[in-house]
Design goal:
globular; five-stranded mixed β-sheet; alpha+beta; six-stranded mixed β-sheet
Length: 375
C-alpha cells in the first residue's frame, strides 16, 4: 500500500491559484521529497542537490491533474516503493537529455503554453535556457519562494514525524553522552553519536561535536583529546523519513565550574525567553533584536548570524530564517528550531508555533543544566 501524502496540499493549491500557476516543475531535494514522499539516499541524493546533474529526478505537479515523476531506471525503485506518486516517465541516464524528455512530457500534458513554476535556484543557466528553447510558448516562473511558504506551515502528520525525530535524536545524545570519558577524542564521540542515530532508525545524520578548546567550529571532528573540565558544543540533525530531529545539547566533562554554570544559565534564560515570544504575528527581525538586546545586557557579543530557522524535509534549515532584517512574520503551524547561542553555549530546541503558547517538540532531554559526563 502506498504512503499517504502528508504535505499541505490545500495551502499549495491556494498559493498556486494566487500566482496563476498551471503547474510546478520541482527538482530540489526539499520540494521533491515534500510532494513525492521519496527520500533518496547517498549518490541519488547528490543528484537532487547538484544543479548540473546529468541524472536529475523531477516532479511535475499540475494544479489540476495527476502528478508524474520524470526519472531514470536507477531512481525509479524508491518512487515505486516509498512514494505516493503513482506515475513515472523514465529516460535513459547518460544517453537521453532530461531537459528534452521533460519538454516532451510537459507538451504531452498540455502545458506547452502554460505558466509553470520552476525553482530557478535549482536550474543551471544552461538547463533553464534549454527549456526556454524547447518550449518557447511556456512561461517559466520562479516558484522557490512560493514553495517555502507552502512548506513552512506543517500538517499534523509532519509535526508528528518531527516530534518523533526529536525524541530519537535526544535518545542518541543521552546514550552517547553517557559513554564520554576523559581521553576520548572528538572523532570517537562523534562516531558514537552518528552510530546511535543510525541504529535508532534515522536514514542519515550529520552534525558537530566541538570541544570548546577547538576554536574552529564546523571544521570537522578532530583528534583533540577530551579533558576533565571541558565544555562541549553539539549541533546534530538526524533524518526520519526525510524529516529532522534537530537539537543542540551542551556537555561538561566533570563537575561544572561556577563560571560554566553561570554562562549556561544566562544563555538558557535567553533561549527560553525567545521560545515564549514565538507567537503568531511576531516579526522575525524583532525577535532577533530582542535576543541581541538580552545578550547586550549580559555583556556578551550582540550581533549574530541567526537565532534559529524553520525546519522541513530533506534539509533541516529552511525559511523562515530568524535573522536581522527579515520581514517574515510568524504564523501558527510553523515549526522552528531555536538556537540563540554565544561562545559555544548552545542549546537548540524545536517548537511548534500555535495560536496560544508555543509547544516544545523536543522535551525528552532535560536542559535545565548542561549534561555532566565523565563517569
Amino acid at each position: 500500500m502506498r504512503r499517504r501524502n502528508i504535505a499541505n496540499v490545500a495551502r499549495l493549491n491556494r498559493l498556486m491559484d494566487e500566482a496563476g500557476l498551471d503547474a510546478l516543475v520541482l527538482r530540489s531535494g526539499q520540494n521533491f521529497t515534500y510532494l513525492s514522499g521519496v527520500v533518496y539516499p547517498g549518490t541519488l541524493a547528490r543528484h537532487m542537490d547538484l544543479t548540473d546533474s546529468t541524472r536529475p529526478v523531477v516532479l511535475v505537479w499540475p494544479r489540476n491533474g495527476t502528478p508524474v515523476v520524470l526519472g531514470n531506471k536507477t531512481a525509479a525503485g524508491l518512487v515505486e516503493r516509498d512514494g505516493w506518486i503513482e506515475e513515472q516517465v523514465l529516460y535513459e541516464a547518460y544517453v537521453d537529455s532530461p531537459q528534452e524528455k521533460l519538454a516532451e512530457l510537459l507538451k504531452a500534458r498540455g502545458l506547452a503554453k502554460a505558466k509553470v513554476g520552476f525553482e530557478k535556484d535549482y536550474w543551471s543557466a544552461q538547463h533553464w535556457d534549454a527549456m526556454q528553447r524547447a518550449l518557447p510558448g511556456m512561461k517559466m516562473a520562479e516558484c522557490t519562494g512560493l514553495m517555502d511558504r507552502v512548506r513552512w506551515i506543517k500538517t499534523d502528520e509532519e509535526v508528528a514525524l518531527i516530534r518523533k525525530g526529536a525524541d530519537l535524536l535526544d535518545d542518541a545524545y543521552l546514550e552517547a553522552f553517557s559513554r564520554i570519558r576523559p581521553g576520548d577524542t572528538e572523532r570517537k564521540v562523534h562516531a558514537d553519536i552518528i552510530g546511535a542515530c543510525l541504529r535508532l532508525g534515522f536514514e542519515w545524520a550529520h552534525g558537530i561535536f566541538n570541544v570548546f578548546r577547538n576554536t574552529v567550529p564546523y571544521g570537522g571532528e578532530s583528534d583533540m583529546v577530551i579533558e576533565k573540565g571541558d565544555a562541549i558544543r553539539t549541533d546534530y540533525v538526524g533524518y526520519l523519513m526525510g524529516y529532522p530531529g534537530h537539537q543542540s545539547r551542551t556537555v561538561i566533562v566533570g563537575k561544572p565550574t561556577p563560571e560554566q554554570a553561570r554562562d549556561y544559565a544566562i544563555n538558557l534564560e535567553v533561549h527560553r525567553g525567545l521560545i515564549d515570544r514565538c507567537r503568531p504575528g511576531a516579526n522575525v527581525h524583532d525577535l532577533w533584536a530582542w535576543t541581541m538586546g538580552e545578550y547586550r545586557k549580559a555583556g556578551w557579543p550582540d550581533h549574530h548570524m541567526l537565532i534559529g530557522h524553520g525546519v522541513g524535509c530533506w534539509w533541516h534549515q529552511q525559511e523562515p530564517i530568524l535573522r536581522r532584517k527579515s520581514e517574515h512574520v510568524l504564523e501558527a503551524g510553523m515549526v522552528l528550531a531555536l538556537e540563540p547561542h554565544v561562545n559555544f553555549w548552545h542549546v537548540q530546541d524545536m517548537i511548534l508555533v500555535t495560536e496560544g503558547a508555543p509547544v516544545l517538540l523536543s522535551p525528552k532531554f532535560n536542559t535545565d543544566r548542561a549534561f555532566v559526563a565523565g563517569g
